[in-house]
């Protein structure tokens, strides 16, 4: 088990006081942004991209990984206490979690969410350490045509299959791909989409795009909807679980992990589907009829699935250089900022970084558990922060970050442009994830496409010259056509999801979900 | 900026939030929140109203700019205050509103009805806290067009 030796080495690297400090900062910051609806880990990592100028890659990634896991955890607190999921993956937790809290079992709900997150995150991270290296070994031999096909698969899946509306998804995707085109053509050095501005000859800085869309867009959106009736929060003390709660929780944790990890790992990740599946399966397996009234299994399962898929996301990210969530794409941008080429060679070229990162995920997970169980009442207090003060702070860091990239006021203007775009996207219900994936994957895809075409001498048949590419294109066709065919065959009466599971709470909760918000 | 006012008279639960409001000879407006400051203000408001046959108009206002505002009463706290007022036997009305400024919302109500007195509960504020958060009480004291009674927890009416 050479990989586990490497992981052990990574643990020793990660366990320096300085790295532990960055892990703790990341975890606290991540929980902070996860608790507050509207601010997700993607925004937090985007706002922190400028710190990468001053930090070692390892330290920056330890912090980002902490933010990512912390954000996943923080969302559950808001779901349970307020019935307002902090991020889209927590929607299912809200269903049973809030009902538990209303019955006076908030402490148990928070505890099972925290311990379940820890269990799933730890198992998930170990699975990443197990699966990513062999996958990367295989992926190194993948040619440009297949690589292009896999990237296309990731884009199509996140755009057409996961979102609420394929049309909106594709609008967002093509906006993103267009933004990704700005700059010099890599082969011919022609300036593209430069609008005659010398500043646009270089590709757009991802900090400016991500911060504009996530932070400024959200701030403008909140400013447009500043005053809303406050919600009723359920008071909570120290989370704890009784013997019975443990007995009922451990199986859902493991089942949730088993469901969540593969969905995170395939290049069409996202935690919405596995959390939903986990909720439905726990509901089916439940022996008593407590479901719908606050069953602990309904919190334990989805929350574990959520964190397991968060861990699974690192498999395509590390082995293929393929991000599948908004946070992962911003992290990939940070990687590029260090001049590190994401892709299959990452595991061998940057072995230290990768293994320290995986080890710090394990440490961050433990820190989350240790910090968050006692701090839960404090996190609930965050929800009392008035929006003007909160977003003023975010805007300050957003402008600082945008200016710091090039020390050019032009970037602050650009930030405003992308902020307005972000506002418009929220106004018209365009999902943010396809756009950000388009911005970051677009140039990488273009590189692979150009490479494939130059090998085949410009002949498009070169794109299907590898068996793997053909298989992937077949999967894409299936993924796009299957829902259409199924709905035609089954007719309009066939709901894809059981109506009982998506009633009230989701309808109330969904418009509040986070950076990947779909239907506001 | 439009202040949304939820007049509890049209409460869908059908519980009458106002109680023979037409018989009131002028109103005592109570700036109320579900805490000890609101409770003492309400006690004084009821005391003042009962003596002169006035109605009690309870205003529960929020800026609505935070996800959670403990001073914005939930359904249970509202029902509780309505029960207390009904038990006190005075004409009453309970209003909740969301708007830019809590003091403005209270003042808006006093100018809307025939307000004879405003009762507020005074909170302890450090100078720095006042600088940061402002003082609703101070603005009501300075801008109200009728007498203002400012009370603190522990002060018994009468």
Descriptive notes:
The complex is a heterodimer of chains A (520) and B (158). In chain A, helix 7 packs parallel to helix 20 and helix 9 crosses helix 18. Chain A has one domain. Chain A has a two-stranded antiparallel ribbon with strand order 1-2. Chain A is 70% helix and 1% strand. Chain A has helices at residues 2-14, 17-35, 41-48, 57-82, 91-102, 106-140, 144-161, 166-181, 206-224, 243-265, 272-285, 297-312, 314-319, 326-337, 346-349, 351-382, 387-406, 409-427, 432-455, 467-490, 504-509; strands spanning 183-184, 191-192. Chain A has 520 residues and is an all-alpha fold. The termini of chain A are far apart. Chain A is globular and about 65 Å long. Chain A contains 21 helices and two strands. Chain B is an alpha/beta fold and 158 residues long. Chain B has a single domain, classed as HUPs (Rossmann fold, 3-Layer(aba) Sandwich). Helix content of chain B is 36%, strand content 22%. Chain B has a six-stranded mixed beta sheet, with helices on both faces. In chain B, strand 2, helix 1 and strand 3 (55-62) form a beta-alpha-beta unit. In chain B, helix 3 runs parallel beside helix 5. The longest helix of chain B has 17 residues, at 36-52. Chain B is globular and about 40 Å long. The model of chain B is unreliable at 1-16 (pLDDT under 50). Classes of the chains: A mainly alpha (520), B alpha/beta (158). At the A-B interface, loops of A face loops of B.
Provide a quick synopsis of the model:
The complex is a heterodimer of chains A (520) and B (158). Chain A is mainly alpha-helical and 520 residues long.
Structural class of chain B: alpha/beta
Helix content of chain A: over 70%
Number of helices of chain B: 5
The end-to-end distance of chain B, rounded to whole angstroms, is 40 Å
Mean pLDDT of chain B: 82
Percent helix range of chain B: 25-40%
Q: List the uncertain runs of chain A.
A: 494-520
Secondary-structure-based class of chain A equals: mainly alpha
Shape of chain A: globular
Largest sheet of chain B: 6 strands, mixed
**Quaternary structure type:** heterodimer
Biggest interface, chains and residues, is: A-B, 18 and 16 residues
CATH top level assignment of chain B: Alpha Beta
Proportion in β-strands of chain A? under 5%
Q: For the largest beta sheet of chain B, what order do the strands appear in spatially?
A: 1-4-3-2-5-6
The count of helical stretches of chain A stands at 21
- Largest sheet, strands/sense/barrel of chain A: 2 strands, antiparallel
Biased composition (Basic and acidic residues) (chain B): 1-10
Pfam family, one (chain B): Usp
Organism (chain B): Nocardioides kribbensis
Region (Disordered) (chain B): 1-20
């Amino acid at each position: 088990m050479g990989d586990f030796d490497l992981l052990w080495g990574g643990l020793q690297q990660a366990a320096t006081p300085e790295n532990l400090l960055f892990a703790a900062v990341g975890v606290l910051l991540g929980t902070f942004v996860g608790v507050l609806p509207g601010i997700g880990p993607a925004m937090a990592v985007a706002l922190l991209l400028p710190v990468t100028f001053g930090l070692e890659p390892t330290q920056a990634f330890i912090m980002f990984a902490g933010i990512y896991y912390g954000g996943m955890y923080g969302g559950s607190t808001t779901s349970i206490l307020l019935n307002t999921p902090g991020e889209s993956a927590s929607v299912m937790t809200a269903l049973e979690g809030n009902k538990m809290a209303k019955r006076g079992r908030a402490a148990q709900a928070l505890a099972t969410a925290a311990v379940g997150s820890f269990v799933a995150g730890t198992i998930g991270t170990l699975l990443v350490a197990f699966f990513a290296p062999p996958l990367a070994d295989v992926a190194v031999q993948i040619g440009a045509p297949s690589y292009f096909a896999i990237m296309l698969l990731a884009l199509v899946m996140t755009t057409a299959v996961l979102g609420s509306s394929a049309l909106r998804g594709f609008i967002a995707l093509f906006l993103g791909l267009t933004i990704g085109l700005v700059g010099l053509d890599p082969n011919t050095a022609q300036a593209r989409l430069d609008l005659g501005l010398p500043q646009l000859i270089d590709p757009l800085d991802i900090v400016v795009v991500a911060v504009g869309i996530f932070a400024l867009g959200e701030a403008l959106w909140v400013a447009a909807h500043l005053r809303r009736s406050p919600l009723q929060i359920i008071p909570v003390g120290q989370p704890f679980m009784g013997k019975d709660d443990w007995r009922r929780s451990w199986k859902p944790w493991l089942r949730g992990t088993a469901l969540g990890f593969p969905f995170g790992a395939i290049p069409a990740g996202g935690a919405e589907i596995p959390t939903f599946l986990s909720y439905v399966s726990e509901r089916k397996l439940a022996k008593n009829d407590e479901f719908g009234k606050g069953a602990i299994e309904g919190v334990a399962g989805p929350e574990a699935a959520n964190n397991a898929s968060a861990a699974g996301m690192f498999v395509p990210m590390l082995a293929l250089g393929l991000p599948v969530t908004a946070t992962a794409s911003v992290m990939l941008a940070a990687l590029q900022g260090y001049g590190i080429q994401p892709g299959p060679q990452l595991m061998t070229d940057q072995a230290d970084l990768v293994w320290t990162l995986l080890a710090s995920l394990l440490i961050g997970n433990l820190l989350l558990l240790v910090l968050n169980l006692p701090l839960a009442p404090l996190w609930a207090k965050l929800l009392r922060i008035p929006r003007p003060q909160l977003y003023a702070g975010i805007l300050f860091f957003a402008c600082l970050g945008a200016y710091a990239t090039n020390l050019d006021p032009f970037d602050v203007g650009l930030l405003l442009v992308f902020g307005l775009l972000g506002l418009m996207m929220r106004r018209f219900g365009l999902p943010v994830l396809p756009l950000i994936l388009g911005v970051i994957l677009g140039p990488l895809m273009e590189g692979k496409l150009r490479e494939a075409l130059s090998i085949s001498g410009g002949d498009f048949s070169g794109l299907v010259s590898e068996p793997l590419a053909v298989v992937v294109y077949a999967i894409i066709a299936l993924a796009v056509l299957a829902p259409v065919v199924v709905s035609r065959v089954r007719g309009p009466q066939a709901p894809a999801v059981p109506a009982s599971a998506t009633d009230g709470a989701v309808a109330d909760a969904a418009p509040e979900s986070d950076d990947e918000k779909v239907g506001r | 900026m439009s202040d949304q006012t939820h007049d509890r008279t049209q409460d869908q639960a059908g519980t009458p939030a106002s109680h023979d409001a037409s018989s009131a000879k002028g109103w005592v407006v109570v700036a109320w929140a579900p805490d000890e400051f609101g409770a003492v203000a309400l006690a004084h408001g009821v005391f003042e109203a009962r003596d002169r046959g006035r109605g009690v108009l309870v205003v529960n206002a929020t800026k609505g700019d935070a996800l959670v505002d403990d001073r914005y009463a939930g359904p249970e706290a509202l029902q509780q205050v309505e029960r207390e007022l009904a038990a006190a036997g005075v004409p009453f009305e309970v209003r909740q509103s969301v708007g830019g400024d809590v003091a403005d919302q209270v003042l808006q109500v006093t100018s809307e009805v025939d307000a004879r007195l405003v009762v507020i509960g005074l909170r302890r504020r450090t100078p720095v806290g006042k600088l940061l958060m402002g003082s609703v009480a101070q603005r009501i004291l300075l801008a109200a067009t009728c007498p203002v009674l400012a009370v603190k927890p522990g002060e018994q009416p009468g």
